[in-house]
From TrEMBL, chain A:
GO molecular function, one term: oxidoreductase activity, acting on NAD(P)H
Source organism: Umezawaea tangerina
Record keywords, A-Z: FAD, Flavoprotein, Oxidoreductase
Signal peptide: none
The name this protein goes by in its record: NAD/ferredoxin-dependent reductase-like protein
Residues annotated as domain Reductase C-terminal: 317-381
InterPro entries found in the cross-reference section: FAD-oxidoreductase/Apoptosis, FAD/NAD-bd_sf, FAD/NAD-binding_dom, FAD/NAD-linked_Rdtase_dimer_sf, Reductase_C
TrEMBL record, chain B:
SUPFAM superfamilies according to UniProt: 4Fe-4S ferredoxins
PANTHER family the record matches: FERREDOXIN
Cofactor(s) needed for function: [3Fe-4S] cluster
Lineage: Bacteria, Bacillati, Actinomycetota, Actinomycetes, Pseudonocardiales
UniProt entry keywords in alphabetical sequence: 3Fe-4S, Electron transport, Iron, Iron-sulfur, Metal-binding, Transport
Span of the signal peptide: none
Protein name: Ferredoxin
Described purpose of this protein according to its UniProt entry: Ferredoxins are iron-sulfur proteins that transfer electrons in a wide variety of metabolic reactions.
Length: 382, 71
């Protein structure tokens, strides 16, 4: 029996456990994860680990002594397969039963796959340390890379591919890269940035089928013709890892559906990429896929487990590193009708801009302007 | 109790959450936004805010150690 059982031993799960201890929680905490690695951080995977600037172990979230000091029962290499919320018990692979007082679901996302590419030599996804080791190994011996999907992850992989000296093509049916995250204007700037760095950006283009020669992908047929490549990364988004919750009775709808306290049922909470909760200030249900949300939501759930009964009402934040640009975004850009530059100049790749919808500031974005964007954040009205 | 704050600078992603949480202890460089540690041994009334900053840092770049006092 553990007083708190956290399933998913990554950013959000560890943040919850750590926050409980920082708040003085003295009960027992068990943290279960299906990966064999000590908890590690994902943002460096597509950047410093893929480029080789960092060794894999530098992505660790906590040093071993700091982890030990938390007094957590860390169970790695163990996959949760089901939960009985009435008996308050999780079953892990192998059949072991783990009873709990409170359950925290922190299982994150699984990459969406494209059937035609699945399992082919040369085709990759990128979510885990094992994925990055495989991908990097192949990129070092490759000449041409195709990235399917120009979301945040696809854009970062393209930039790192260029840094490694590969020829890179990005394919996406949408009109601009990262449009869903940053809207059309900033998306167009990103397309320019990638082109200026030598990437072939095929927006408005669909990937149709792989061309396989001697058991390996050599080309991809797209709606704009054939593109040659030795390596293909499928970066077309991810879906919440809720397969193990199918029969739990918990409400699943693109994530674990929670109330404003991030509570999915009595004694059950969800945190991080997998959690869809009611954002009271935005008056809608929200699921965020970013690193800051993982920690902030972990903190909020730790507080609520300890009886705070507080709604979780964050201002969303994410950053991305591509070439010499660090972009930071607070709030919501995609719904904006106007982008107003507040300081600097997009042409210099150093600026801060406000995103407005019907005259209200709904988000701010900065390129290479960390301080400016932090200050501009206060303009966001909710 | 003494608190020792350390920064693992290469990890910092310039998110600035630390500056919002504990402006007396953290600042950011003008050019790239990387964290500047203003006070490696902050006074007692800052301790709570510094611990909050370490929890919130999305890059796990802030290390906080107790020095002396409680074991
Ligand atoms: C390559 C990459 C780069 C990124 N870059 C950025 C960035 O620059 N900025 C940003 O803001 N965000 C970035 N993100 C997003 C950020 O990393 C995520 O938002 C964050 O990792 C979410 O944490 P999480 O703990 O909710 O989920 P995850 O990190 O996905 O962790 C979930 C864990 O649960 C485990 N698990 C799943 N199912 C089970 C099960 N049934 N039983 C046991 N364990 C299970 C998984 O294996 C995994 O270890 C990036 C993500 C990736 C993949
Ligand atoms: S919160 Fe962390 S990542 Fe952000 S500026 Fe501070 S130290 Fe750097």
């Amino acid at each position: 029996m553990s007083d708190v059982l956290v399933v998913g031993a990554s950013a959000a799960g560890l943040a919850t456990a750590e926050s409980l201890r920082r708040r003085g929680f003295t009960g027992s905490i068990r943290l279960v994860g299906d990966e064999a690695h000590q908890p590690y951080d994902r943002p460096p995977l597509s950047k410093k680990v893929l480029s080789g600037a960092w060794a894999a172990d530098q992505a660790a979230l906590r040093a071993p002594d700091a982890l030990a000091a938390l007094d957590i029962d860390l169970v790695l290499g163990s996959k949760a397969v089901s939960v009985d919320v009435r008996k308050q018990e999780v079953v892990v692979s192998g059949g072991r039963r783990l009873p709990y007082g409170d359950l925290v679901i922190a299982t994150g996302l699984a990459p969406r796959r494209l059937g035609a590419f699945d399992g082919l030599a040369g085709a990759h996804v990128l979510r885990t340390l094992d994925d990055v080791a495989r991908l990097r190994g192949e990129l070092l011996a490759a000449e041409r890379l195709i990235v399917l999907g120009a979301g945040v992850l696809g854009c970062e992989i393209a930039a790192t591919g260029r840094q490694l000296g590969l020829g890179v093509t990005v394919v996406d049916p949408a009109p601009v890269p990262m449009g869903a995250q940053v809207g059309p204007e900033i998306g167009a700037l990103l397309a320019e940035l990638h082109r200026a760095n030598g990437v072939e950006v095929l927006t408005g283009t669909k990937a149709e089928a792989p061309v396989v020669t001697n058991g390996r992908i050599t080309e991809v047929l797209t709606s704009a013709g054939l593109v040659t490549a030795d390596v293909v990364v499928v970066a077309v988004g991810s879906t919440p890892a809720t397969d193990w919750l199918e029969d739990s009775g918990l409400i699943l709808d693109d994530g674990v559906v929670c109330d404003s306290r991030c509570r999915a049922a009595d004694n059950v909470y969800a945190v991080g990429d997998v959690a869809r909760w009611w954002h009271e200030r935005q008056a809608r249900s929200v699921r965020l896929e970013n690193r800051t949300n993982a920690t902030e939501q972990g903190l909020a759930v730790a507080d609520n487990i300890m009886g705070a009964d507080k709604p979780y009402v964050p201002v969303p934040y994410f950053w991305t590193d591509q070439y010499d640009v660090r972009m930071q975004v607070f709030g919501d850009l995609a719904g904006a009708d106007t982008i107003r530059v507040l300081e600097g100049d997009p042409a210099d790749r150093k600026f801060v801009a406000a995103a407005e919808a019907a005259g209200r500031v709904v988000g701010v974005v900065g390129w290479n302007s960390a301080r400016g964007v932090r200050k501009a954040r206060e303009l966001i009205t909710s | 109790m003494l608190l020792q704050v350390e920064i693992d600078e290469p990890r910092c992603v310039a998110a600035g959450h630390c500056v919002v949480a504990a402006p007396e202890v953290f600042d950011q460089r003008d050019d790239d936004g990387v964290v500047i540690l203003l006070d490696a041994n902050p006074p007692g009334d800052e301790h709570e805010r510094v611990r909050e900053a370490a929890l919130l840092c999305p890059a796990a770049a802030i290390l906080v150690r107790d020095r002396g006092g409680a074991p």
